[in-house]
Amino acid sequence: MFATKRFKNYFLRGLAVLLPSILTIGVFVWGFRFIQKNISHYINIGLVKLIILIPETYRWSEKILNEFWVEGAGSLAGLVFALIGIYLVGLILASVVGKALWRVVERFITNTPFLGRVYPYIKQVTDFVLKQAKQDKLKFSRVVAAEYPRKGVWSLGLVTGSGLSKVTDTVKRDLLTVFIPTSPTPFTGFIIMIPRKQTIEMDLSIEEVFRFTISGGVITPGSEHEVALEKFKPITIDKPDSKDRKEEDVEA
User: Does this model's pTM top 0.90?
Assistant: First the structure.
């Protein structure tokens, strides 16, 4: 009885320590394989075609080149070229000319049937994830706690601005526009307009709110530090009480 309980405690403790690391590595491995399969593979094939066009490489057959550049160790070259290409695209789009050209491309995509219906929503999600620091400054000014969805129930929200002038003038109150993220995906949520006096200013960052929402409230602000310290606590073996000893003696 005691041995089973001790095994369960140690197993759950080891799982709690290893699972986050395994999942993190798994995400990176999945991303690496996705890039290799859908981007790097075709870059390597194009690289082989380019090498064949060089006169000095006539003695190398396409099969041998494919074995090295596409299926062998040379396949990493495609990944390197893909990363460099992404960097160069970002560098070009940072310039005035690049931004102007990209606006033309986006206008073409949004005016294309079917693509125009999907692209804006995908762009909003990617901008929300990849340009989070910029959006924190422009859209999310601070974190508040608001009584939502009913009185007595509090939710964390992100202030996006003041209330609509029409509503503010009608109710004659100082309103805030607050975005209430939903769990487990904080990219979606509800927009509410609530009186400023009915909110509580929270000393939290946007990242802390997102972690709190994604984890369903399990990860609270400051708990990450406590979890990190928990790993370094000494492991103590629980001694069986008198009841456990008696049960072991009876089983023996």
Answer: no
